[in-house]
């Protein structure tokens, strides 16, 4: 297993995994991911903020990070943190605790970049995801109604989000 930055050559696979994740979300939840802009992923790749887990030469999982997320985290955005977004797992690798591997990687990445927190959010009040992320070590900080979603992906429009944080 290797964790490394995604490259432009991975874009089609990233979008395939997003589609699989979105199709799954549609069967379970009212809110699901929109179709993301290709330019969003291209920018993340260019800025080394799009990541992947590779197992036996295959992309097993992808996610993106940022060091700032003010529209979701508001005043807490001033804290030194990394923010994880859009974890999508290849169905061939489900059940291998890949989110836990992302958490362990994130701890080291956060420390190397002088950050004190790892944060993520999910749209809505989803007891299953709340339980899952707390099992992965995150503290559930509660629900937050977003005030300004201009420029955010469409699933954040008029949304309430569940906030999660892990100290490093």
UniProtKB/TrEMBL annotation:
Keyword terms, alphabetized: Transferase
Chain coiled-coil ranges: none
InterPro entries per UniProt: Acyl_CoA_acyltransferase (IPR016181), GNAT_dom (IPR000182)
PROSITE patterns, sorted: GNAT
Natural source organism: Chryseobacterium soli
UniProt protein name: GNAT family acetyltransferase
Listed Pfam families: Acetyltransf_1
N-acetyltransferase domain location: 1-159
Keyword Transferase: yes
């Amino acid at each position: 297993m290797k964790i490394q930055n995604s490259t432009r050559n991975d874009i089609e696979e990233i979008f395939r995994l997003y589609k699989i994740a979105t199709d799954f979300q549609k069967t379970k939840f009212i809110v699901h991911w929109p179709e993301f802009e290709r330019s969003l992923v291209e920018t993340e790749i260019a800025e080394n903020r799009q990541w992947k887990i590779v197992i036996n030469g295959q992309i097993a999982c992808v996610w993106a990070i940022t060091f700032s997320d003010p529209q979701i985290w508001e005043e807490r955005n001033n804290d030194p943190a990394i923010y994880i977004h859009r974890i999508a797992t290849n169905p061939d690798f489900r059940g291998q605790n890949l989110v836990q591997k992302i958490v362990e990687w994130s701890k080291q990445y956060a420390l190397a970049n002088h950050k004190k927190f790892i944060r993520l959010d999910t749209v809505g009040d989803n007891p299953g995801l709340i339980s899952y992320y707390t099992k992965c070590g995150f503290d559930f900080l509660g629900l937050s109604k977003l005030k300004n979603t201009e420029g955010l992906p469409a699933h954040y429009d008029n949304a309430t989000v569940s906030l999660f944080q892990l100290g490093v």
